[in-house]
Structure formats: structure tokens, C-alpha cells
Write a structure and sequence with these properties.
Helix content is about 35%, strand content about 25%. With about 110 residues, the protein is α/β, with parallel strands linked by helices. It has a single domain, classed as Glutaredoxin, CATH 3.40.30.10. The chain has a five-stranded mixed β-sheet. The longest helix is centred in the middle third of the chain and has 16 residues. The radius of gyration is 12 Å and the shape is globular. The mean pLDDT is about 95.
Length: about 110
Amino acid sequence: MSDSVLQFNDDNFQSSVIDSAEPVLVDFWAPWCGPCKMLAPTIDELADDYQGKVRVGKLNTDESRQVAVQHQISAIPTLMLFKGGEVVERVSGLQPKEQLAALLDKHL
């Protein structure tokens, strides 16, 4: 995993995501999820590509159930882009890097 990818959980979600001055892309995932594993390299690349513009991180839904329930995560991987503490984009399933980059670019 890239050093640029942040780790979010129930304890730091409010301060790291909701209260962030920068847009934050959150990858809701779990270790047993095949598509999540396939998406991981794309998340690493996006974190490196958008460093300083967008915070990119992962939240393990098995370990951080409170946030997963709060944001109605019913399928993983689910990616949510937060801006100003609000969800501005939400996509589920395996997504190509180009589509995710376009989603991020739209909110910069």
C-alpha cells in the first residue's frame, strides 16, 4: 500500500474525513472482498497522483462498523468523496482509474 493512503476508522473518521478542509476519497472495503483487493492498486495510484489536492484513504468495514452503518454501506467496495463534510459522490463496485480520476477532477 502506498504511504499516501490514509487509514480511517470509527475513532478518526470525524476529524480526518468530515472535518477535513480538503476533499477526501474514502474506500470502504474488507480484507475478504475480492473486488476490493483488485481496486487497491488503483487507490494507491490515486493517492499518489492527487497528493496535496485530495486526501485518499481506506476504511475497513469489518473493523469500523459504526461508520459503515452510518453511511449505509451495503456493498463493497464503495467509494465516497466527501467535500466540506458532505458526500458529493458515491460509487459502488470495481471502477477504472480513469473514471475515478474524472470524479475527483470534477470536485477540485
